[in-house]
């Protein structure tokens, strides 16, 4: 309840108000609210740099949770202020062994990760392991985030061979997210890992083949619904095109002749442009009718048929 006295200062980002409160009651900076948060922790989480400066000048910085909290929210400015005030402050949460780099990766904060990698004090944690033995690279691969994977792999001190508690290197985490194999991110992460560790390229290629087989098998299971979707949409478009081309063939440009001996014949029948129109219109109508007919006879559970069907109908349409 005492902590709530300083809440308005946070809300209005008033460092002057915070300064007055801290001069009168400095111990408020360490008081916890009902959720166990102190004012300085809230300043970090809410990105209130002005208030944070006042609090840091009032108390001694003791810890890891502040830098880790900043990493969780991706507040680079807060982290800079923390490092300026206390360059040697720890950057690891002792409970789970999560460093600020682990937290930034797990929270998917690429800008904060870039800040850590560029900091001589903080980038030492690039190969540190958490309670489960995972390095930040393990987590980045697990998150299937190519931007963060690339940032970590480009660091000069990265070690891709570090094993976690299960004895697995970071690239083996790709097996755990094989259901993401359809995504561009997964494929990009695979390419980045292969480039960073050419000696293990064979196992990555085997994984890639396994993922491809898994995706194909998954597609086979969903083939009935996929075929219905494709044939339903395509048949609708094909029917509309066939209807329009059929109507165009009987709506002759220039009309019909009423002269003796040529009654009913198109007036422009001898013109090349008109003849070309008739040929292309007839071809379009026939192609659309063929596509519509194929949609009717489509086999619902044949993956190969669906693949060829899509290719063939695209060309006809």
From TrEMBL:
Asked whether the keyword Membrane is assigned, the reply is yes
Q: How does it sit in the membrane?
A: Multi-pass membrane protein
- Annotated ANK repeats reside at 132-165
State the signal peptide span: none
Q: Where in the cell is it found?
A: Membrane
- Which part of the chain is the PGG domain? 233-300
User: Where, by residue number, does the polypeptide cross the bilayer?
Assistant: 229-252, 272-300
What Pfam families does UniProt report for this protein, alphabetically? Ank, PGG
Q: Which GO terms describe its cellular component?
A: plasma membrane
InterPro entries to which the protein is assigned, alphabetical? Ankyrin_rpt, Ankyrin_rpt-contain_sf, PGG_dom
Stated name of the protein: PGG domain-containing protein
Its source organism is: Paspalum notatum var. saurae
Taxonomic placement = Eukaryota, Viridiplantae, Streptophyta, Embryophyta, Tracheophyta
């Amino acid at each position: 309840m005492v902590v709530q006295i300083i809440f308005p200062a946070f809300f209005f980002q008033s460092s002057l108000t915070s300064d007055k409160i801290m001069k009168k009651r400095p111990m408020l900076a360490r008081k916890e609210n009902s959720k166990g948060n102190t004012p300085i922790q809230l300043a970090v989480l809410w990105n209130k740099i002005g208030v944070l400066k006042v609090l840091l000048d009032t108390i001694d910085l003791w810890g890891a949770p502040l830098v880790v909290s900043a990493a969780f929210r991706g507040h680079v400015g807060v982290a800079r202020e923390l490092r300026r005030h206390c360059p040697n402050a720890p950057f690891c949460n002792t409970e789970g062994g999560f460093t600020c780099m682990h937290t930034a990766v797990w929270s998917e904060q690429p800008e904060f990760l870039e800040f850590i990698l560029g900091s001589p004090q903080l980038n030492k944690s690039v190969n540190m392991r958490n309670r489960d033995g995972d390095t930040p690279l393990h987590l980045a691969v697990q998150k299937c985030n190519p931007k963060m994977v690339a940032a970590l792999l480009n660091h000069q001190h990265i070690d891709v061979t570090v094993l976690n508690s299960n004895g697995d290197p970071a690239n083996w985490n790709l097996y755990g997210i094989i259901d993401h194999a359809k995504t561009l991110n997964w494929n990009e992460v695979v390419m980045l890992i292969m480039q960073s560790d050419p000696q293990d390229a064979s196992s990555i290629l085997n994984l890639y083949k396994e993922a491809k087989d898994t995706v194909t098998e998954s597609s086979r299971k969903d083939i009935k619904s996929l075929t219905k979707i494709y044939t339903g949409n395509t048949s609708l478009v094909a029917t509309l095109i066939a209807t329009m081309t059929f109507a165009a063939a009987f709506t002759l440009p220039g009309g019909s002749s009423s002269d003796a001996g040529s009654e009913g014949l198109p007036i422009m029948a001898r013109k090349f442009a008109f003849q070309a129109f008739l040929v292309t219109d007839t071809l379009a109508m026939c192609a659309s009718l063929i596509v519509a007919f194929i949609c009717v006879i489509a086999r619902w559970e044949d993956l190969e048929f669906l693949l060829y069907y899509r290719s063939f109908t695209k060309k006809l349409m």
